[in-house]
Write a structure and sequence with these properties.
The chain has 292 residues and is an alpha/beta fold. Helices cover 54% and strands 13% of the residues. It has two domains: 5-164, Rossmann fold, CATH 3.40.50.720; 170-291, N-(1-d-carboxylethyl)-l-norvaline Dehydrogenase, domain 2. A six-stranded parallel beta sheet has the order 3-2-1-4-5-6, sandwiched between helices. The structure holds nicotinamide-adenine-dinucleotide (NAD). Residues 8-14, 32-34, 37, 65-67, 71, 74-75, 96-97, 122, 125-126, 232-233, 237 line the site of nicotinamide-adenine-dinucleotide.
Length: 292
Amino acid sequence: MSESYAFIGLGHLGGNLAASLIRNGFAVTVFDRDPAAAERLVALGATTASSPAEAAARAGNAITCLPSPKVSEAVLAGPGGLLEGLPKGGTWIEMSTNGRDEILRLAALASARGVETLECPVTGGVHLAAAGKITALVGGDPALYERHRPAIEAMCAKSFLMGPVGSAAVIKVITNMLAFIHLVAAGEALMLARQGGLDLAQSYHAISASSGNSFVHETESQLILNGSYDIGFTMDLALKDLGFALAMGREFRLPLQLAPLVSEIFQMGKQEYGGSAWSTQIVKLLEDAVDT
Ligand code: NAD
């Protein structure tokens, strides 16, 4: 019999991941502080619970996809949290993006209650998550990974076991640091093409076929050019993850140059457009500078 899962945090990313689990035949019990988010999953076949503890008690394992380590801690270890419901030997799969110190601290809280942790942040964005094609970066015990691999593969096209808990956070923060650097660079490239009087659709294709191409250009430049910016990932989340990259730089004594600069650019973006603006709107800083 396959494992069943509680799924807590059904936002832009978690909603799509939970839907993939349900589509692939897993029994899923959902909880979100926003009842409408839970209802969308009920329409697909999930059952609901009135708290993370109740969902976890019913399922025996729990998955989270939440906006910050602070929220993950409250959902895991706060009143009515997962650790009140998970049985000894149950698994907590954390799919939110955390820094290494944060996931190690949270995993220790779980371990003290006999619950094992598999960290499983994902990379590729909401659009790939909706198509079940996102990539999982996994940290944890290899046997635990094998146990939950069917569920991970129901949500993600590829998964990489990186090492023990904490190792997936390191690579996830690295991949996001690269993505934000690429996004700022792609925005500058598009603005140079625009100011140079080039056809932007043709410039997009030329860059895609060039040595300057990147995954971010291929996926996000489209959203910038069509004016929707709809990446499903906010400035606040970008700043959280850049904060983890800066902390890693300090911890590993690496005088990073680009990450602090890009973090400052996103601070300016947040000031101009708000923390809940899509991260792709960072390009508007340049656009607005030219247009005013
Ligand atoms: P989101 O804000 O869209 O969703 C968060 C969900 O958590 C919301 O539905 C919210 O109601 C719920 N929530 C918040 N506090 C809660 C609580 N106390 N109890 C229960 N539910 C609560 O965020 P998202 O974009 O889905 O991102 C979630 C995590 O995934 C973040 O750590 C983010 O960095 C990571 N991530 C996101 C993407 C993406 O493309 N959006 C990609 C990779 C990783």
